[in-house]
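Notes on consecutive records. When two proteins share a document, each keeps its own sequence and its own token line. Never mix them. Below: protein one.
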Amino acid sequence: MENMNSKREGDILTVCPQNRLDTKMSPVFQAEVESQLDGIMHLRIDMAGLNYISSAGLRVLMFLLQTMEDRKGDMELLHVNETITEVFDITGMLDVLTIK
């Protein structure tokens, strides 16, 4: 995916989506992350380069969170900007997501 960087260190995968997680990019992001999850117990999503998230992006985050919980792993969101934090707050996702 041209709008995502990733880095694997042992059982930790850090992915960095860029610009937008919208209806067009969310399925691509999900597929790319899923393809790298083999052996991963800790998923870190660095959102420093993300400036927009739609409901499709929220669904992908919930799917990835459930995937990590099913494998007894965890998922953290890093560097979440104020605008996206507000979206998480409005949708009630602040209570579900781990934001560092």
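Protein two starts on the next line and is unrelated to protein one.
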Amino acid sequence: MAKSFFEETGGRYEKQGDYLIPCLTLPTEKETIIGVWGQRHLRYLKEYRRITYTNLLTSGRLNAYLADIDRQAKERFERLTEQMKQAQGITERLKEENTLEWVGRMNNIRACAMEIVEREIIYA
């Protein structure tokens, strides 16, 4: 009996009852911690970019890709937050003098920065 392409490329079959089932395994990947931004991008890939998700998963590059997205998004968020704080003149002095105003303005800045990061990196 001639070998199939799967067998020629190093694949093997396992007998299950009367059927031969291919033994498929995913390539091993280095375990990395994926933060909030990476998890959001993962959810986006699973929902809207299934082919990209499947390609990354089967090639063994998904965790590294998500860790890189997480790092980029985190850096961009911090950079945007600092730039917006400086542009609006929010200082530690304001924090000491009027805490409620400082909290409100910082929440607004964080929300704006989060929206920008999601649009540019997470859902792109």
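For the record: DSSP finds six helices and two strands in the chain.
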